């Protein structure tokens, strides 16, 4: 399935309508003023702060001021619609700001500002102290590369469209090529990322994460996120070195916090050529202390592909339903419920095969997935500085994928012969979990501890309906002498992994403040019921505030990554695979040039052991035989939003090597790009019009050395070629580059806000340098022609 597509007549018609609406629509009604409620909190404990000076400034420099009350709140009424800068200041705390916050007419908006303490600069003269913090920040003890993006930054990110995962471009070490919603970090794959949603583990956040089909689809990590940017209040990202509260992955930690209902009831309807999305955001209507966020969307991309003449892709359909309620039970207790239901369906049939150029893709695909998450969170403030949170959740995933093969070159009288169902993979996983975390402050600093209990019932199976010829193979794959292809046999392929087990984990951390230093040692203990092993994972991080504008960070730790159940199920010999081991260390600096510009630089190194590697394509056997290293550095220059514009420039260098210890030597890992560069900017032209652009360039990924053999099945009636891989990742593929642009326009028509948007990925159709699939009918590598991918639509919003 390929989502890169050519521009089309229908897209041009939509663009004309968009331009007409931007320049020609009259204003039908004057807007009522808006309101802003700012809540000041202690950044460490989350407690309300009274007496904080809050200043709200519009784009013309006009300011209003107020002080927070005993609940930490300051209210600002009669604000005209537009963008505002919000600053919070208090004695002994860093000046904290939100550089741009949008006020909409007739709505009450809320903003939380977390103010850090300044004890670590107590020996510095007050006139030299100028520490500026954002309203909310990432965990500073996770390293200088740890980043936080708020809701406004996510939903206005260029290239994001209706997908929050595409809104992460520009983060340190992160690489995304636009064709997939999945991303890679510091040379590791898209499935090496640890993802949490409201602190519930949810690795399946992307639709169409294929387990069958073309190699590019299987390795890409999925096409379309289940979360729209507007559904996410904030995204906290760490490319490595996070604390002991979270388990291990070799890639990154991404924590998505879903939006909560606001003070004013708002409904919105988003329309585009693929489908529609409805959202309600506001009070519950049945309890004064309960808010509700609800969104439901349905997209049928098959309609879009038919419209633009890309019928060969297939028919992907998704439905995403999210419900989140938040109830303030008392001054110290909060209760949240979360429901996510995200089914998907993908079909590629004989009609799609017939429409493919040169029969490049003869796969017949049928894939369905039913994904659900039900979670409840109870948070309680304990004492003067403590918090105890408990999360109970049930996650269920049931996926059924089948692959067949068509023979379009043997068609007679318009009928294409086919084996409809040859290979099947069943993936069923039920997870019941409890996560308990306690934090408090003592004379040393912050103390935290937690417990994880997870019961997993996994049922995975692979089935093969008779022998199946595979035309891509490696030189050392077992086969008869002279045979230039491999044959999958049911006795070598079929396997079923059906096990249930309880995974346990516990952790403890203590931060210690010593003058300008803050350090955090931690220890995590895991018991993996499926590998039947226990693991110790020590963590250590250090933050040194050299001056008010310069800080250094050190992170280190041992992380363990469990093999995928799909890998275990591929062969009975894989059932007892052990966890991979990742030893990580990083050293970074963060220099603040002024209150708008800052520079981040971080070097890192990882030692990788017990890597799961494929032994053979013929029987899908895997071993914990691999080891390797990953080293590099990230450099970021960023400008916070100020005077109507923001910008960032990111450069990442990565050097990775891996050895499967199979006698063939070391090679560059699949997703390693030695160089990656990204520059982006956002410009608020007026209160109504926003423009954004991002250009990305990356050096080529590694590619295999291979030989193509022609007519490998003489006398069979089939004219087929094969591809023999002689050396893994021995060459370098083409460079990747892409220019993405975005236009957003908002205007009020009576009681309705209308938002028109145009978001174009890969504006000038540059190649993305992806690995090429092979066509055994023509005997050629498939040239995946890149082209612009426009996303455009209309959003209707109304406050009640």
From TrEMBL:
One Gene Ontology cellular component annotation held by this UniProt entry: cell outer membrane
Domain of life: Bacteria
Protein's cellular compartments: Cell outer membrane
Bilayer disposition of the protein: Multi-pass membrane protein
SUPFAM superfamilies: Cna protein B-type domain, Porins
Keyword terms: Cell outer membrane, Membrane, Receptor, Signal, Transmembrane, Transmembrane beta strand, Transport
Annotated GO MF terms: siderophore uptake transmembrane transporter activity
A biological process from GO: siderophore transmembrane transport
PANTHER family assigned to the protein according to its UniProt record, in alphabetical order: HEMOGLOBIN AND HEMOGLOBIN-HAPTOGLOBIN-BINDING PROTEIN 1-RELATED, TONB-DEPENDENT OUTER MEMBRANE RECEPTOR
Protein name: Outer membrane receptor protein involved in Fe transport
Species whose genome carries this gene: Chromatocurvus halotolerans
């Amino acid at each position: 399935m390929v989502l890169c597509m050519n521009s089309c007549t229908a897209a041009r018609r939509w663009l004309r309508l968009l331009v007409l609406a931007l320049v020609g629509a009259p204003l039908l009604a004057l807007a009522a003023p808006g309101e802003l409620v700012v809540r000041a909190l202690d950044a460490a404990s989350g407690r309300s702060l009274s007496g904080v000076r809050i200043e709200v400034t519009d784009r013309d420099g006009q300011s209003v001021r107020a002080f927070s009350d005993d609940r930490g709140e300051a209210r600002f009424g009669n604000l005209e619609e537009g963008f505002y800068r919000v600053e919070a200041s208090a004695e002994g705390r860093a000046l904290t700001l939100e550089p741009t916050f949008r006020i909409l007419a007739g709505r009450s908006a809320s903003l939380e500002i977390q103010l850090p303490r300044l004890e670590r600069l107590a020996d510095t003269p007050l006139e030299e102290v100028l520490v500026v913090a954002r309203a909310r920040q990432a965990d500073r003890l996770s390293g200088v590369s740890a980043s936080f993006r708020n809701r406004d930054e996510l939903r206005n990110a260029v290239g994001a469209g209706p997908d929050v995962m595409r809104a992460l471009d520009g983060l340190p070490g992160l690489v995304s090529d636009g064709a997939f919603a999945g991303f890679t970090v510091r040379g590791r794959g898209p499935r090496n990322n640890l993802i949490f949603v409201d602190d519930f583990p949810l690795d399946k956040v992307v639709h169409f994460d294929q387990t069958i089909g073309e190699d590019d689809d299987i390795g890409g990590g999925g096409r379309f996120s289940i979360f729209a940017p507007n559904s996410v209040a904030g995204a906290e990202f760490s490319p490595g070195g996070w604390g002991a509260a979270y388990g291990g992955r070799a890639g990154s930690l991404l924590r998505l916090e879903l939006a909560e209902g606001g003070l004013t009831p708002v409904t919105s309807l988003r329309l585009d050529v693929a489908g529609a999305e409805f959202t309600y955001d506001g009070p519950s209507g049945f309890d004064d202390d309960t808010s509700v966020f609800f969104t439901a969307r349905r997209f049928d991309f098959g309609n879009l592909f038919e419209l633009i003449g890309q019928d060969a892709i297939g028919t992907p359909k998704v439905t995403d339903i999210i419900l989140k309620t938040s109830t303030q039970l008392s001054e110290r207790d909060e209760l949240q419920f979360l429901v996510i239901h995200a089914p998907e369906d993908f079909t590629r049939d004989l009609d799609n095969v017939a429409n493919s150029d040169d029969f490049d893709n003869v796969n017949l695909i049928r894939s369905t997935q039913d994904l659900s998450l039900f979670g409840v969170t109870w948070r309680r403030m304990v004492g003067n500085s403590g918090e105890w949170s408990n999360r109970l959740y049930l996650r269920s995933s049931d996926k059924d994928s089948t692959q067949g093969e068509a023979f379009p070159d043997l068609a007679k009288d318009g009928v294409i012969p086919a084996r409809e169902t040859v290979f099947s993979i069943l993936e069923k996983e039920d997870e019941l979990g409890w996560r308990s975390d306690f934090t408090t402050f003592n004379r040393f600093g912050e103390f935290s501890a937690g417990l994880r209990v997870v019961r997993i019932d996994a049922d995975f199976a692979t089935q093969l309906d008779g022998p199946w010829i595979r035309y891509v193979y490696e030189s050392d794959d077992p086969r008869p002498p002279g045979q230039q292809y491999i044959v999958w046999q049911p006795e070598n392929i079929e396997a079923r992994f059906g096990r249930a087990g309880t995974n346990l984990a516990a952790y403890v951390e203590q931060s210690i403040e010593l003058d300008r230093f803050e350090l955090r040692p931690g220890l995590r203990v895991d018991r993996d019921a499926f590998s039947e092993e226990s693991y110790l994972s020590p963590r250590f991080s250090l933050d040194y505030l050299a001056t008010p504008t310069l800080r250094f960070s050190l992170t280190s730790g041992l992380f363990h990554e469990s093999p995928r159940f799909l890998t275990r199920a591929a062969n009975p010999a894989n059932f007892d695979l052990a966890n991979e081991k990742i030893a990580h260390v990083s050293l970074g600096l963060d220099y603040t040039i002024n209150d708008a510009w800052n520079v981040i630089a971080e070097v890192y190194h990882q030692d990788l052991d017990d890597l799961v590697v494929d032994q053979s394509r013929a029987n899908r056997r895997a071993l914990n035989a691999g080891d390797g290293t990953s080293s590099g550095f990230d450099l970021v220059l960023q400008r916070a939003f100020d005077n109507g514009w923001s910008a960032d420039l990111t450069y990442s260098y990565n050097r990775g090597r891996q050895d499967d210890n199979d006698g063939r030597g070391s090679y560059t890992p699949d997703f390693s790009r030695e160089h990656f560069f990204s520059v982006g900017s956002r410009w608020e032209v007026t209160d109504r019009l926003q423009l954004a652009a991002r250009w990305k360039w990356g050096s080529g990924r590694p590619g295999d050395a291979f030989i193509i053999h022609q007519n490998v099945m003489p006398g069979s009636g089939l004219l087929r070629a094969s591809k023999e891989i002689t050396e893994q990742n021995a060459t370098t593929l083409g460079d990747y580059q892409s220019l993405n642009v975005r236009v957003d326009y908002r205007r009020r028509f009576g009681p309705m806000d209308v938002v028109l948007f145009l978001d174009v990925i890969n504006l000038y159709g540059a190649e993305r340098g992806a690995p090429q699939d092979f066509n055994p009918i023509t005997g050629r590598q498939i040239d995946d022609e890149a082209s612009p991918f426009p996303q455009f639509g209309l959003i209707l919003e109304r406050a009640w």
